[in-house]
Structure formats: C-alpha cells, structure tokens
Zinc-dependent peptidase (Cellulophaga baltica), 258 residues
Amino acid sequence: MWVPVFAIIVIAAYFLYILRYAYRIYFTELDPLTISEKKIILNNFPVYKKLSNNQKQKFEYRLLRFRRDKQFVFHGLTPRQEDMALLLSATATILTLGLKRYKIPAIERVIIYPNQYFSKLNRQNHIGEYNPGLKTIVFSAEHVKQGFEIPNDNKNLGVHEFAHALSFNAVLERNPENRNFRKHMDLLASVYSSTLFQQKFEESTYFRAYSKTNVQEFFAVAVENYVETPLEFRQEFPEIYLILRKMLNFDFQKPFEV
C-alpha cells in the first residue's frame, strides 16, 4: 500500500513545485531599476537614449525578467557582480527588444569568470562561448567590460556571444519570428558566399578579420558592428544591414521607426 501513497506524495510535490515556479514567474513583482542601475545603462548603451518612452519601459521590464529568470553563476573573485549581471541582461534585452518572443529559452545559465578561463568543451582558453547543449553562455568579466569601454570599436563580447545564442534559439524554438530569423540567416549565408560580396569583403576593413572564420562568426561580428556603428554599417554594407534589421526587427540607428 505504501507504493501508491509514495507515488501520490511525489506527484503532489511535483505539482507544488510547478505552482510555486509559475507564481514566481507570473505574479512576483519586479523591483524597478535603481537610479545607479539606470546610470550604468545610460553610460553603456547609447541606443537607450534614442528609445521612445514605451520602448524604454519595455526594455527595463524585459531586462528585469532576464536577470531574474536566468541563473547567474560567478566563479572566482569577480568584482562588481551585480553590475556585470546588469550589463549582460541589458545586452541580451537590447538584441531582442524588437522581438515579441524575447526570453531566449536557449539560455538557462550565464556563467562568468573574472578573466579568461579554460574551456572543458574544446580544451582551450576562452574569453566567451555559448554551449547549446547545456543552454549555457559563458563570459570573462574583464573582456565583457572591455567591450563597453570604446562604444564604437565594433568589439563587444557580450553582443557577440548573445548573437550566437540567438541563432541557435531560432532553431530550438519554432514560431513565425524564428522562421523569419532562419530565413534571413540563410539569405545572409547566401550573400556571404557570393563572389561579389567576398571581393568587397576582402577590400574592406570595416569587419574585423575574425569575421572571415565562417558565416556564423561573420553573423556574430556583424551584429557587434550593427549595434555599435549602425550609420557606418548602413553606408558600407547596406544589404547586410537590411538583413540584420529584418532578423532583429530593430534598427539601432533609428529604433523608434521599426
């Protein structure tokens, strides 16, 4: 008789867990950003000033959701951990601000090391990576900070790795937005492999050398450029610019017009 009773207890405990989780996700109020947190956003995300009031409210709400719902794990003596969690949450949020489905289920865990770390995935030192199998994104805090020090050098580790995660998320979760994302990723790959583009690509210094690794790395690097120097991007490579604009449904030059 104890087996059915034990089974009932297990099932009841499971449903209680689900109810508590649902309550935390859907009914727990989110504390608004503090004045100091808003200052960090203003200092590190120039596009924030261009947003409409409605966009700013949406950005802040989604940022708070991301920071609450994802598991942040810090290894070693990483300084200013709350600021780092804020910067990374804001980065993920600004990249998905134009999307209706913004939660990025392909990411469950965000791991941060103080500096470069040894990756068990490929047995090499890394400053950042995305592991789709573990739904985990990993960063070096020092290199994340460096990505914000010069706002127009087209080097932002946070943007780069979240761009990779978004491309995997488009495969993981099937919906109209992700179908649109995949369609334009295929278009990007087609343009990238064309002789005409490759000729211009070789002659230009706009994209850094790492973008020539493969189309996935080109996409991640291109998103960095799209975020940091949208005007120059549109002038140099208008076709690629338009593809990214349609993928993200967001224009970093004129965000209120999308």
About this structure: The two ends are 63 Å apart (CA to CA).
